[in-house]
Amino acid sequence: MAEYSDSASMPTIKHKVFAYITHADRLLVFSHPDSPDAGIQVPAGTMEEGEDHEEAVMREAFEETGLTGLQLQAYLGEDDHHVPEVDQTDRRRFYHLTCEREPPAAWRHEEKHPSDGSPGPYTFEFFWVRLPDEVPPLAPGHDAMLPKLLERLAARL
Predict the structure, then answer these.
(1) What is the spatial distance between Cα 42 and Cα 76, in angstroms, rounded to a whole number?
(2) Separation of alpha carbons 139 and 153, rounded Å
(3) Architecture of domain 13-156
(4) Rounded CA gap, 27 and 10, in Å?
(5) Measuring CA to CA, which residue among 61, 143, 56, 146 is closest to residue 97?
(6) CA–CA separation, 8 vs 13, rounded Å?
(7) Which residues, 6 or more positions from 64, have their beta carbon under 8 angstroms from its beta carbon?
(8) In what helix (H) or strand (E) does residue 153 lie, and over which residues does it extend?
(9) How many CB atoms sit inside 10 A of residue 77's CB?
């Protein structure tokens, strides 16, 4: 399920999951101190063979952040993001998760076994930003479902 290609003219499709993790009115984002040009991102990753979307987003959220006490709240939507350098389309499914425990304001965490097959570990620097005004420009496509998240949060008030 992670990828397929029907012909030489069709790009490979990789199935990805993205986690918009909130705590109160804040969104969790991170940077790559060893790769600053990767931009500010939200936790995300590639689905593993046989994994369903909800399992994948919970696994990725934990592996990338180290946070426990995360709760899946809602599916927000899907979009396709073409990666021309490798002729690949990332089919991205976005979810809203909440952090039910009091999290640190900022922290570093190492993802030891990246799901994209590249050698790890990756070091991430996590921090919270207030929604919607403090959200910095995110890596391409990471903001695709932020309007849906904001609608959802506004409806809960």
Answers:
(1) 14
(2) 22
(3) Alpha-Beta Complex (3.90)
(4) 36
(5) 61
(6) 13
(7) 30, 43, 44, 45, 109, 111, 124
(8) helix 146-156
(9) 15
> What residue spans define the domains of the chain?
13-156
- Summarised one tens digit per residue, pLDDT across range 106-129 is 999 998 766 666 667 889 999 999
Q: Element (H or E) spanning 126, and its range?
A: strand 122-130
Assess contact for 64 and 43: CB atoms under 8 A: yes
Other Cβ atoms less than 10 A from the Cβ of 95: the count is: 24
Which neighbouring-strand residues pair with 19?
A: 95
Round to whole Å and give the CA distance between 41 and 30.
5
What pTM did the predictor assign? Answer: 0.89
Q: pLDDT for 13-31, tens place per residue?
A: 999 999 999 999 999 999 9
Q: What is the DSSP letter of 49?
A: T
Measure the CA–CA gap between 53 and 48, rounded to whole angstroms.
10
pLDDT tens profile 62-99: 999 999 999 999 999 999 988 888 888 999 999 999 99
Token pair, residue 145, equals: 């479902």
User: Taking the alpha carbons of 80, 81, 84, 88 in that order, is the dihedral positive or negative?
Assistant: negative
